Structure formats: structure tokens, C-alpha cells
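pinging the channel bc i need a second pair of eyes. not urgent but kinda urgent?? the chain im working w is below, pasted from the shared doc
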Amino acid sequence: MTHPDGWLKSLVSITCFVCGCFCFASTRLIKPKARGTLATSFFLQGICIVIAAALVQAHVVPEPKGLIVPNELDVNLMELLPLGFLAFQSGGQIVTSRLLGFNEVPTTVLTSVYCDLASDPKILARDNVKRNRRVGAVLAILIGGIAGGWISRSSAGMSVSLWIAAAIKFTIAVSWSLWKPKTEIQL
């Protein structure tokens, strides 16, 4: 037997992701590229990760049981809470990458970046900024996945990986708020 509630987790994840995309995309109605808007976006994404980390660390959500579930009726709906918060903030993450014009860097999945790399007619060109970003994205996601998996399997547990992700989001939020705006050259 496998996880009988896998369909429910997928449904919650996709629904929360789409809701996150919708909510964070609403920033286009104001100034989507303004420093304050970007800082607020990353701050809210960080809050979502903090909530997920706190739920896991407080053992509100049980540790994963592995691939085998002894009783098909053994479905713990509490597992959906952090999943929903993480999926919601992922929607914000990808919307932000699109608003900033970095469509070549998918921030949530790797399959499209692999496709884009493999089909890039300028893959061997010396100056190829998009290829460089894609390769950087692949390496960052790969390193992050390995580090997160290693930390999650250690005695530190999964919550530490989430706390690190939240710290990164908050660092980005603070960076956006402190970033000096471009000054226009007046002639």
C-alpha cells in the first residue's frame, strides 16, 4: 500500500499554489516592481514558511511515516497545513520571478529549465545570460534539495530546513527594502 491520501495532498498543494499565484499577482495592480512591494512579497512568503516550520517543529504535524501506511484510514489532515502554506508561498515566488522578467528561471520545478537548456540554440555561446541563469537555477535547486534532504534526515529534522528557507526569504525582503533606487541622470 502507498499513501491513500496522496490525491488530497496534491489537490491541496495545487489549490494553494494557484491561490498564491492569484494573490501575489494582484500586486500588478499597484507597483509590482517597487522595492516596498517586493519586500512585502518576500516578507509574506517568509511568514508562510515560518508558520509551516513552527507547525513541524511543534509536532503539530507528525513526522513522515515513509511509503507504507498500515491502515488506509490512517489519514492525518494536519499534514495539509504546512503543505498549504508552502504551496501558497511558492505561488508568490514564481509570480515574483515573472514580474521581474526572469521567465527563464523557474523557481519551483526543474523540468522546464532542463528543456530550455537542452533546446537553447545558443547553449555553447560565450555570452548567454539566460543559459547562465538557468544553469545557476539548476545548481541552486540541486544544492538546496541535497542540503534540505540531508538536514531533514539528520537529528535536526525537517523544521530546520524550513527555518533556513524562511531566513533566506526574510534576508531577501530586507535586501529589497534597503536597496538603493536607481538615480536618474539629469542632463
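so The mean pLDDT is 84. and Residues 129-153 form the longest helix (25 residues). — does that match what u expected or am i reading it wrong
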